[in-house]
Amino acid sequence: MIQHLNPMTFQAYGTLLPERPDSTEPVGKGDHVRKISLTQKELPVYRTQSDTWLYSRSAMTVLAVRDAAGEYHHFYLDKPVCLRPEVIFCIIPMGNETTAEVAYMRAPEVIDRISWDSGLEMPRHMKVESLYTFFYQEKEQGFVFPGEAHPMAELTYVDKGSLHSVVDGQDLLLEQGDVMIYAPHQWHMQYADMGVAPRFVTISFGLSGGNLEKIQSRKFKAPQQVVTLLQLMLREQEQPDTHSADMIISMLNALLILLLRQVDAPAVKVKTSNGVHSENEIIRRAQQYISANLREKLTVPLVAERVEVSASYLTALFHKNLQISPGEYIRRVKLQESKQMIRENSMTFTEIAAALQYSTVHHFSRQFKEKFGITPTEYAKSVR
After folding, report:
1. Buried-most residue among 12, 30, 107, 312 (CB within 10 A)?
2. How far apart are CA 269 and CA 252, in angstroms?
3. pLDDT of residue 167
4. What angle, rounded to 10 degrees, do the helices at 311-322 and 326-344 form?
5. CB 277 within 8 A of CB 255
6. What is the pLDDT of residue 140?
7. What mean pLDDT value characterizes the chain?
8. Count of CA atoms in the C-beta half-sphere (13 A) of 156
9. Helix, strand or coil for residue 101?
10. What are the Cα distances from residue 340, in Å, to 161, 196, 207, 334, 380?
11. Given its phi and psi angles, is residue 93 left (phi above 0), alpha (psi -120 to 50 degrees) or beta?
12. How far apart are CA 99 and CA 381, in angstroms?
């Protein structure tokens, strides 16, 4: 990775000089000043024999300096520097060629020549290469999935209810808010207890980098950041555009890194910002209250009162962290609950609308179609 030149990062090798308004002024105080032109084909490696001043005269130029362990550190040479004696360095053109000005008391000694190495980009350790499936699943009470194994990794997140996950001889009960990852080619099955109709997200994907062994075949309570990413991914899927697939894959990449960091975190609790912790806690409490009171008349002021903040502050937190207003969040969760009630087939549409505190069944039907693209009647026919 190419680093930015600043006094702290460069202090082991030399000092930075003031940037010169007059580019015709000599670069340093050395007795000798010369220009060197370099191409990417073969680059000389120098060792300084006195204070040596460097400045890039053209194009994007990288200064590589070698530490005591023999590792090169790369800096963007956008300002003059003075290297102390005995520093080993190389000047690398980012384009086809570059010109640099060098000043010195004693000429730097050429000690080696190297071929151009383009590995200057920031390395990636985790890379989701492909996304195969991304489903929000709403299952009937007591459903059973007989099991499968496939070459992709798979993530399951339980959004509502609970779900049994059988893998490697273990029967793990995933409850609301739990997440689990299956390894490629790992056989797994899922089922729900009688009377439980779970809703969960499943994502199958491929990696070209990274190692998920630490988080495979075990369940985690998903941190708020992971839940937020899943919600944003679902929104991208509901309202897709040209860039939605890239956004979903990028967010999945971030989600996996968050889970890995959670496992790698030290046992001693790290003190986090009180402000960030407080915001996450307020959102979590608000979501829990909404989920537990879906059949009540919910308003933003009421939810804000229950979590002991103002309505305007709660609205700001939802927009900041979930990119949605609390009112819209309530509407979406109620409509999701209505699908479960329709599948249970124990209430009429009028009764469902009343139970969820809609003013009329027509209002409920209109919002249902706006959200899901079909009417409650059409949905009922599709699941019965």
Report:
1. 30
2. 26
3. 83
4. 70
5. no
6. 83
7. 86
8. 29
9. strand
10. 11, 11, 34, 10, 10
11. beta
12. 73
What is the DSSP-derived secondary structure letter of residue 5?
Answer: P
The DSSP annotation for 206-220 comes to EEEE---GGGBTSEE
**Any idea which residue has 């609205």 for tokens?**
315
Indicate if the alpha-carbon torsion angle 214, 220, 225, 227 is positive or negative.
positive
pLDDT confidence of 267, banded at 50, 70, 90? Answer: very low
Number of neighbouring beta carbons within 10 Å of residue 15: 13
- pLDDT tens digits along 179-237: 999 999 998 889 888 788 899 999 999 998 778 998 998 898 999 999 999 999 999 99
Residue type, 325: S
What strand order describes the sheet that includes 162-167?
Answer: 144-148, 188-191, 162-167, 170-175
Nearest to 341 by CA among 160, 202, 135, 157: 160
Token pair recorded at residue 277:
């912790």
- Beta carbons of 167 and 114 less than 8 angstroms apart: no
The pLDDT value given to residue 276: 56
**What's the pLDDT at 270?**
36
Convert the pLDDT of each residue in 326-359 to its tens digit.
999 899 888 888 988 898 888 999 999 999 999 9
Residue 234's Cβ-count burial label (10 Å; 0-12, 13-18, 19+) is middle
Cα–Cα distance for residue pair 318/332, rounded to 1 Å: 14
- For the chain, the residue count is 384
Report the alpha-carbon angle 307-285-364, nearest 5: 90
